[in-house]
Design goal:
mainly beta; four-stranded antiparallel sheet
């Protein structure tokens, strides 16, 4: 059996890095979140469920900010990073559609947005290299306003709610101020020298009162504290007795009580009800990092955007609940299916570790793996309760209970670039770190290095011949493809016919292992019929030459799928001709593909920023 399609529409795992929250000031059940890679999502039930709101957003990656017009909540602005094609987009229909607003922008790498609460036609945008931009016509035209700024990398902007001509810009770890709508800037503020400002909060009742969270510099930050200014930010004083922690994060005012503030510090949410004189804990141990927003009409309702999604509290932070249903915004790096039980699926993410589903993807839960970037995952084909996962910065881990518990293997490397398991002898593993290749013959208990340093490029993919365990291949991101016929003891390059050496993955025909497919960044796809001695391009019909995963039908290997920067492409004749197979996946970077072992027409696609999609019709339609 397979789960019904309607249950899997917008397959999870739900969540993803949230970088901004915009709340409708007239109807706080109407929310918008900006996710770092998945674009904009909209909720009409206070975060109970979410739907994508990305029509017209040609660029969804490296999102930075979202703001809502306080006078007309159907008007929103969204900021995106990267030089091209980032910039600013505007919606006039409540997020149903978006259009570019980049006229006058020199730097499209937008890091911050702010809106004038009195005249909503006035918008401010902070860029990463060109300082502050201002628009006086609702974003149609922009002009630079940088006089007095000594740093042009802007990460946050704040407009004083009681005096809209007063603006604050956070650049690096410093704060600058303008009292004439950005025409002139002064700063940096006194009292914050040697500190890296994390966040600002402006008193909604007193124009001269501000609070800041700041970490001790230089980098890396050594701890954090809260500061207060009573003269509009000219001078700052440390709040004695305030939150002090190794990590300090966001700060926000209660919109209905200016003496109540919330500060995130490590795994604690602090609250003061007397303007910072005294503080108390207001949480149950949730890591308070990221973006903090408060409901403008309902006291005590808080939203916290983190790297693993949005969380909501209805009791002033004492307890929290995830509010991510329908928010497909994870960067999924790998999708692995239990070969003995197709209902069990694993997904690795770039920010939140590993997720597991035991019902074909209808529901997901954390797989007990430490939070953090995880890209590589392999499963033991004989004992599928055993899996191996590489985590960025921490090395290789192993579980023998299906992800319930994990332990670090003896491979003491910082990052695992590639990982493979021998299907014939599952105790044999191959792993790489940069240009170094390692082998274990006892399930990760011990490792030996089998390829010396000096390789051109890093090893990015490893695969074992499905019929002969002596033959192993690896690809690099600059040196092409290498082959071993003695289980990795010696290696030879096999690049004849390749027009690029930036390789991403390989797929071997299970019936004829001399037939191999190679994916590249920029060169499309290549094929060999002689075990790698000669390669030829097979790009007929491909509109994207940025190819990452390749997937072969196990019983009909002439049927192939390729994940590209423009979705999924399919071939039914061994790569002779390709056609787009990306309905609802268009313009999504697909970086993982997996096929149900019992129902090969069921295919899962892991995307860069939109979690997982599933097709029940061999790629014709994706949900």
């Amino acid at each position: 059996m397979i789960p019904p399609a309607q249950a899997l529409g917008g397959l999870g795992p739900y969540g993803g890095p949230v970088v901004g929250v915009a709340i409708d000031p007239t109807n706080p059940d109407r929310l918008f979140v900006m996710t770092e890679l998945g674009g904009v999502f909209k909720s009409t039930d206070g975060g109970g469920s979410w739907a994508e709101a990305n029509v017209g957003l040609a660029w969804r990656l490296s999102a930075s900010a979202i703001i809502i017009d306080p006078n007309n909540p159907n008007v929103l602005y969204a900021g995106f990073g990267y030089s091209n094609p980032g910039g600013i987009f505007k919606s006039t229909d409540g997020g149903e559609s978006w259009s570019e607003r980049r006229s006058g922008l020199v730097d499209y790498n937008i890091g911050a947005l702010a809106i004038d609460p009195v005249d909503a036609r006035i918008i401010y945008a902070g860029s990463q290299q060109s300082g502050v931009y201002k628009s006086t016509d609702g974003g149609d035209r922009w002009s630079e306003i940088n006089r007095g700024l000594t740093s042009l990398s802007i990460s946050a902007l704040y407009v004083n709610p009681l005096d809209s001509s007063t603006i604050y810009a956070k650049t690096g770890g410093s704060v600058y101020k303008s009292t004439d709508g950005g025409a002139n800037w002064t700063g940096p503020s006194r009292g914050l020298s040697g500190w890296l400002v994390r966040s600002l909060a402006l008193d909604p009742r007193d124009r001269n009162v501000l609070y800041a969270t700041a970490a001790r510099g230089p980098l890396p930050p050594l701890g954090g504290d809260v500061f207060k200014s009573t003269d509009g930010g000219s001078r700052w004083d440390l709040i004695t007795g305030g939150p002090s922690f190794l990590f300090i994060g966001p700060i926000a005012f209660d919109p209905q009580d200016s003496r109540t503030l919330y500060v995130g510090a490590g795994e604690r949410l602090y609250r003061t009800t007397d303007g910072g004189e005294t503080w108390s804990f207001a949480d149950t141990g949730l890591l308070i990092s990221g973006y903090l927003a408060l409901d403008p009409l309902r006291p005590g309702r808080l939203y916290l955007g983190r790297s693993d999604g949005l969380f909501v509290s209805v009791n002033r932070g004492e307890t929290w609940a995830a509010a991510n249903m329908g928010m497909n915004a994870y960067d999924v790096r790998a999708v692995v299916i239990n070969p003995h039980d197709a209902w069990v699926i694993y997904a690795t993410t770039a920010t939140a570790g590993i997720f597991k589903s035991t019902d074909g993807g209808v529901h997901w839960s954390a797989a007990g793996f430490p939070e953090g970037g995880t890209a590589r995952l392999v499963i033991n084909p004989v004992d599928p309760a055993t899996l191996y996962a590489g985590q960025q910065g921490r090395g290789l881990f192993k579980t023998t209970d299906g992800g319930g518990t994990w332990s670090r293997t003896e491979l003491r490397v910082a990052d695992v670039y590639a990982l493979a398991i021998d299907p014939h002898q599952p105790e044999v593993l191959y792993a790489s770190e940069s240009a170094a290749l390692y082998r274990s013959t006892n399930g990760g208990g011990a490792w030996s290095r089998i390829y010396p340093a000096g390789l051109s490029g890093s090893i990015r993919f490893i695969i074992v011949n499905p019929q002969d365990p002596n033959i192993v291949y690896f690809t690099t991101d600059g040196g092409g493809i290498f082959k071993s016929v003695d289980r990795g003891d010696s290696w030879s390059p096999i690049n004849n016919g390749l027009t690029t050496r930036r390789m991403t993955s390989l797929a071997i025909d299970p019936r004829d292992p001399q037939r191999i497919y190679a994916a590249t960044l920029g060169g499309g796809l290549f094929k060999t019929v002689d075990g790698g001695e000669n390669w030829s391009a097979i790009n007929n019909g491909l509109t994207s030459l940025q190819v990452l995963p390749i997937l072969l039908h196990p019983s009909h290997p002439e049927i192939l799928y390729a994940g590209t920067s423009e979705g999924v492409f399919k071939s039914v004749n061994g790569g002779g001709q390709w056609f787009a197979s990306s309905h609802r996946l268009s313009n999504r970077l697909v970086q993982a593909l997996a096929m149900s072992p019992t129902h090969p027409h069921v295919i899962y696609a892991g995307t860069y920023g939109n979690s997982i999609y599933v097709s029940f019709r061999a790629g014709k339609l994706w949900d």
